[in-house]
Amino acid sequence: MNDDLTIHPVGIVRSGLRALADAPRQGDEGAPDAWIELDPRFVPASEGLAIGHEILVLTWLHRADRALLRVHPRDDTSRPLHGVFATRSADRPNPIGLHRVRIVEITNGRLRVAPLEAIDGTPVIDVKPILGPGER
């Protein structure tokens, strides 16, 4: 297997969430609006996005423990250990975050989205639209 893989961030999350302890586990558990600041080189890639669109934001959970392979789901030690691939834990070999959000504002290469549980400074590695039936 080839271990060489390079991912370049397309932007960064700007959020009032500053510490991991402040972030809800999922967006629908009280996460605030946040901004995605696109790298100026990638602003043209956002053409076609509009207020109200639902998108998937893929992030690199840069504060995750990449060596952790088993966790108690939701850090509940009364639950048995599971492999991280069977959980939504941020701690995993490749800590890619997947966030379904709605665009609430677009301005100057920035997307305000809601709700987003990623902390301030989290690298954004991709943005993808949510497609309905028959869309491509």
Automatic annotation (TrEMBL):
Pfam families: TrmO_N (PF01980). Gene3D superfamilies: YaeB-like (2.40.30.70). It comes from the Bacteria. Residues 7-136 form the TsaA-like domain. InterPro entries: TrmO-like_N, UPF0066_cons_site, YaeB-like, YaeB-like_sf, YaeB_N_sf. The keyword Cell cycle does not apply. Keywords: S-adenosyl-L-methionine. The keyword Amino-acid biosynthesis does not apply. NCBIfam families: tRNA_TsaA. Belongs to the tRNA methyltransferase O family. This is TsaA-like domain-containing protein. It comes from Sandaracinus amylolyticus. The lineage of its organism: Bacteria, Pseudomonadati, Myxococcota, Polyangia, Polyangiales.
